[in-house]
Amino acid sequence: MSNNQKGFLIKITEQKEKLFIEYKLLDSVSNKLYQDKKYNRILRKINNIASNPEETKTLEKYIYELNLIKEKYSYYKTDSLLIPFSENGIYYNDFNNLFNTHKDVLINKRKPHIVLDSNRNMSFTLKTKDQIQIIAIPSPTEKSHPILISFLKNTFDLYRKQKQNDFLKEEYIYNY
């Protein structure tokens, strides 16, 4: 087991007039991940096309597949919420706005910035029935990526208001 990795994963699924929010705190990753043949094959494919801007959609598909494999070898502490739309319409609207906002706006292509903190890379995956968008952001802040960071903070605040426990420790989620 590799225990030096910390981080979080939030999965939000729309279900019959409700949002199911699963909060996962990474505990460890099995070393067996690096022996997985499919994982290594996809990793090689990613390395072969990573620098080709014409392969963005293919790259996103491979990264999504790679993350699914990694999840099988990862151990998490989990908790969840079920949020009816009627009880939190503002949050539901924000959730929908993520899917309706152009990717360039979400990643803030207009404002390049220098990243000195490589410990806080984030990846957002927006998946619908027929499309996957992966948004990788090095060291996002409220100033550099206001839509995503606001949504992330609101997602954590929903949990904190309803659960009022210490599950969302700072060692996993930084200052969010």
Features:
single chain, three-stranded antiparallel beta sheet, globular, alpha+beta, two-stranded antiparallel ribbon
Rg, Cα atoms, Å: 17 Å
Task: Give the number of DSSP strands.
Answer: 5
- Helix/strand class: alpha+beta
Task: Please state the average pLDDT score.
Answer: 82
The percentage of residues in β strands lies in 25-35%
Main sheet properties? 3 strands, antiparallel
The geometry reads as: globular
Number of helical segments with 4 or more residues: 6
* Helix percentage range: 25-40%
Distance between the termini: 27 Å
Low-confidence runs of at least 5 consecutive residues: none
Across the major sheet, the strand order is: 1-2-3
Order of helices and strands: EEHHEHHEEHH
Characterization of this structure:
The chain is α+β, with helices and mostly antiparallel strands and 176 residues long. Helices cover 39% and strands 26% of the residues. It has helices spanning 37-49, 56-72, 89-100, 103-107, 146-163, 170-173, and strands at residues 8-15, 18-29, 74-84, 121-127, 132-138. The strands form 2 sheets. Strands 1-2-3 form a 3-stranded antiparallel β-sheet. A hairpin with a 2-residue loop joins strand 1 and strand 2 (18-29). Helix 3 runs antiparallel to helix 5 (146-163). It is globular. 5% of the residues are buried. The model has no long low-confidence stretch (mean pLDDT 82).
